[in-house]
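Researcher: Good morning. I'm working through a list of sequences from a screen, and I'd like to move beyond sequence-only analysis. For each chain I'm collecting a predicted structure so we can compare shapes side by side. This is the next one on the list. No need for commentary yet; just the structure.
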Amino acid sequence: MKPTRRQLIAALAAPIATRALRGQNSSASVEIHSNVDVGTIRPELHGHFAEHLGSCTYGGLWVGKQSPIPNINGHRRQAVEWLKQVGIPVLRWPGGCFADDYHWRDGIGPHEKRPKTVNIHWGNYTEDNSFGTHEFIELCRLINAEPYLAANLGSGTPQEMRNWIEYCNYPSGSTLSDERITNGSAEPFKVKYWGVGNENWGCGGEMHPEEYCALYRQFSTYVRTFGGVRPFKIACGPNGNDTNWTRRFFDALRGKRGPEGYAMHFYSNSRSTSTSFDNTAAEEQLASFQRVERAVIQQRALLDSYDPDRRIGLLVDEWGVWDRMVPAEQKQFGALFQQITMRSAVAAALGLNVFHRQAEKLVMCNIAQIVNVLHSLILTDGPRACRTTTFWAFDMLKAHRNRMAVRVANPDPSALALSVSASKQGGELVVTLVNPKPAQALDVTCAISGSNPASATATILNHTSLNAANTFDQPDLITPKPLAVTAAAGKLTMKLPAMSIATVTVKLA
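Model: Good morning. Structure tokens for this chain:
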């Protein structure tokens, strides 16, 4: 049948209407129950991770005492200043895969006498071990971070781990503590957090859960209190939401003393290089944070079935985006270097919002990694350095630390729904909202029950391109800016551009 003139006009107009619809704002509504407590947002949920990988440690955090790059006793001065600014609650080191081939005695004593060793996990680089235990502890003290040491279970011995703890924590009078004093540290390091192996299902030994559990029991027997510092022992948990690993580990552990912490890893991978994402690739990667939240809920529930009193804390020991690498960038800047874009910052904020919403289920979360590698806060190249968009995401969300997370009800169950977390302290409410949609702005309404918002101020991190990034030539291209927000009639209202992060500080009446 021949189409009518009206049908032809409608058919021609349809693509135009579709394009117009895509350009329009959508609406999103959530309710914040300010009188329904979830749990305290521990600062450690904003933790970080540094490994001997690429230029994270050497060339990134550590430039050496003789370097022309401005430094504090060998530590890159600019990195120290920026990390103090954002606040690093806890820093995990030396790995990662590197931890299970690292022998701590190689990194103590006079630098000229330290052995040169081969990094078998990351490119067979020869390392001079100039960055060791003393340098790591000094860095932690410079940036006010709690140190977290990952010990070598894969190729080490129980005695090696036990002696490292005594060296670090025993005040004086033993051969090991006196050696620490001779090496320049009269005061003990007081290291609380100790990882008993890392990724032992993979690079840490390719073990079955039962094999790892047997070694965990053996090693942890010798992890003792020295100098009054009771170790917080952290066992290797699953890769992603592997419930089989968790069940088999705890089944094998039955009747024996368990760890204080149990650490899962969860990366958000992509086949796209960091600055070449299209909308579809961005949506696929950012949707993974719904699975991260599901994993936290399910792993905690599984732990509760073995540990109903919650004596064992759940950690997300490594997390973040892992994009496809660019060979030329890795050659120039080191292994697993990736540029950090607006999309990366949105991913970081999505992860932190998950941890806030599930605050009562978690004790620590460490993004990977702090400088130059994967989902980093700082990029460096010789004397040059810049703060990434992820740095600013952490900076914007740090106001939640030590506050009480409150319940957020979101009627949209989709993986790319508006992401919200909220926390309170005294007469103040802090709300972080993330629009993960790469091509859709949102008109946002946040209803607040249990209290009345009297006034609000907000900041936003956003760029029109999801692939935009702070670079050495444009280090401040993307930084937080003021955002218009209205607080009235028990609601917050604002407009969020596509791919944006906003933090709102609300004064309650």
